[in-house]
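Quick one: NOL1/NOP2/sun family protein from Alistipes putredinis DSM 17216, structure tokens please.
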Amino acid sequence: MAELGPEEGRALCEALEGPAPTSVRLHPQRPCRWSGAEAVPWSPAGRYLTERPSFTLDPAFHAGAYYVQEASSQFLAHVLAGEEVAGKRILDLCAAPGGKTTLYASLAGSDGLVVANEVNRQRAAVLADNVRKWGLGNVAVTVNEPAQIAVLEGWFDIVAVDAPCSGEGMFRKIPEARDEWSENNVKICAVRQAEILREAWKTLRPGGLLIYSTCTFNRLENEGSLEGLLAEAGEEIVESTAFDCPPAWGVVCGRVGPFRTFRFYPHRTRGEGFFAAVARKVSDGGSRVRVPKSRRTIFAPAGRRECAELSRWVAEPERMRFAAVADVYYAYYESQYEAVKMLAESLRVIASGVAMGQIFKERLKPDHALAMFCGLDRGAVPVAELSEEEALRFLRKQEAEAAAFAEGMNLVTHGGAALGFAKRIQNRVNNMYPNSLRIFNL
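--- reply ---
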């Protein structure tokens, strides 16, 4: 606050007491009614909404047509705009609930791989749900400490650390963050951030890009964390490729050695408090890639008959490889398969690729993840297009009219976007939407 001065300090305090703007980020492959809304200037897929709707009662939200993401944090799309992200390996080290993970997945494409790690198991489950809903099939969700991830030495092209912090930038959006804040908590966070950055740096290949971000204002957790990494690895850190940050955006740009820094204040930008920094690991011409030895066998390649059944469910079977984990079959893009296999055999992976389902008597009982997969072959089963009222009944797992469904398995859609599967057996409809995702009490 002292750095801003009294006048700007008052403006910041007033902004923190005002209403928070609502913004979303559109899915790259799905239609959305907000595609024509006001754009977030630093995020091509970002949109501001004039009011905050009930997202829970919007079938498009459950179909993954958009992600409700705070505008300032979407700045990372601009950070990566000048990078060759498609086909790269990206580590999102502190990934839950998944806003930045789905952003990276959208940029990485089907030949890229995002490893989204979250140390907290409950938060990791939410992360996995959001990744599944986004439906790109290019993410592996892991639950490991940063030191465990660090065994993948020099393996990633891009490493992003959205570090746990004191949350000063969320005082407007999450009022409870004010009650939880203390100077001691700031110090505790700074120590933890230094540990995370130290381990994250090991995983970055020479020439790779490091992105560090927090949702707090103070220098100890932001510039201080960068200075700590520079003290340990300064000779390996160089500037990243320059990119524009127009003054009209209101972003406060700065530097910490080779790091370019970007600070968002709610009184200057239409978004919450946010800090981001970017730099590159020096390219020394060496690879120095080290990966752990396999500790166990996880994947069992699908047999010929199973592959034939699984192939008819995906639009590009020639690009996929199928494997069983226990009794569930998964699909992986060919370019990712060996990498994900290595991860599953050495780390704790709770979700990866596309869970296709179980096979009984040579027929697939599809998993919900397959319905959400953008690479699903829509000709595999009949499509049941529902009205908004019918879609909400489906999402609540309420009784459905059998006449809206064909006999057998159906892909349930609303506005052309998939919501899940349902199976009609004569006059009865079995709703296959996961109980853990159903809408309650609304």
